[in-house]
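Entry type: protein chain
Record version: 2
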Amino acid sequence: MEKFFNTAGPQKTDINYSIDPLARFNLDEMMSLIFQQRYFVLHAPRQTGKTSCLLALRDYLNERGDYIAVYANVEGGQASRNDVQSVIKSTVDTLAEEMRGILKNDLPLQVAESVQQTGKDAMLATFLRRLSESLPRPLVLFIDEIDALVGDSLVSVLRQLRAGYPNRPAAFPQTIVLCGVRDVRDYRIVLSNQDIVTGGSAFNIKAESLRLGNFSKEEIRELYMQHTRETGQQWDEACFPMVWEATEGQPWLVNALAHEVTWKMTENRDRSITITPEMIYRAQERIIYRRDTHIDILIYKLQEERVKRVIEPILANAEEPDEEKMKADDIQYVTDMGLITRDRGKPIRIANGIYREIIPRELTWNTQQTLIQEPQWYQRADGSIDMVKLLTDFQQFFRQNSDSWIQKFDYAEAGPQLLLQAFLQRIVNGGGYIDREYGLGRRRTDLLIRKPLTDHYGGPVQRVVLELKIKRGSLDAIIEKGLQQTWEYMDTVGSVDEGHLIIFDRTKEKSWDERIWHKSCQYNGRNIMVWGM
């Protein structure tokens, strides 16, 4: 039985293609922190491989024999929320059971039983003290999903760990690693009396905060080539830059694309078939449309107000963040979720191509379903899209419906761009693709429509560039700049059939007759249609 790409739970190296978890972080740094008896944090977005890394480090330490290393997931305590007694008991029981598995004896269960009558705010610390005193070697403890705990319960756990810290390693764990989506210092914990405690104050013994990164380009190639070595199935070389653009190394996305294209697309189980870029595009579309768990979690998060405060100005191509709305804590929160990233010296942006696709499509999903336009209305005999007819119809639709439709969007600030993208998605969906580029400081949204004209890979493809801008300042100036930007994007894409510059004028004092127009312009030898809306 051949291995497969993993999209659920920790890696199992006997059945999963995998990158060595110990190679995904600085092992020397980890070992140094443990040797120095430090307590620290490992955090990263969901489904990036944190658990796999912790389990691998646990096994590595136990094989070396200097420590007794134990991993425990405390997510089960989430159900009890602010019932501190239940959460602490659940945490102690979970730790005891995991330790019993490592020690291969019932000592942890006996110690857990001995502390059951201890008060809720000392039970965990007492358990760890008594157990550490009974062990032949120092204890190293990995506590996963720590941020699943909330309120009074989370504060109690953190404070009990802090209370026992001075007694390490003889009477408390030598090292404790807390693992979750966010750094403990960023927690704003609301207690039952509505007081707010920060994670930094409740756990001020933290020495370091380490973040688990994404796969590199080289690691993606190595992961995919494991499949080739196992099965003989080849990857077209053009697949690798495409996978990088789509995922930027996000581990779940990297594995999900590969699993989709090598297994769930059943025709490709014939290992003599070479995986092509067109197959990668189809796999991406299927993952997005199916809304797998990873995607569904991100979609749910878009409804949070603090996420909206960060994502909305990115979608709207704001010149710079509104500091009254976009707070540093919110930016860090959305970064920790893995939705956005910031390259050195550049504005924040959506983290990868698949997320750039998901966000506007999800925000306009209901709109797409209620539009009456059908793809065949705009399809020429050769299968290409009649963009002039499509944009002319959209102008009329926008004139009649924009005010009422945009008010329906949760992200109204980005309403004009989202409404056009919903219209385009309705027409393109199923027979083509839309690539999107947008972000803070860009003052524009770049769209590339790719419409294959045959089912054959490598056949003719219609490519259309659309540049979306909100009118700010002089119309002549924005047209001049917009033509340059549209031409540059067309030049970058190459082999483009046509280009369109679309300018949304939100000036309320203007009539629709003044705002709705279009004309043909020449720029650097290319014809570009300019549309006012």
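Comment: The chain has a mean pLDDT of 90.
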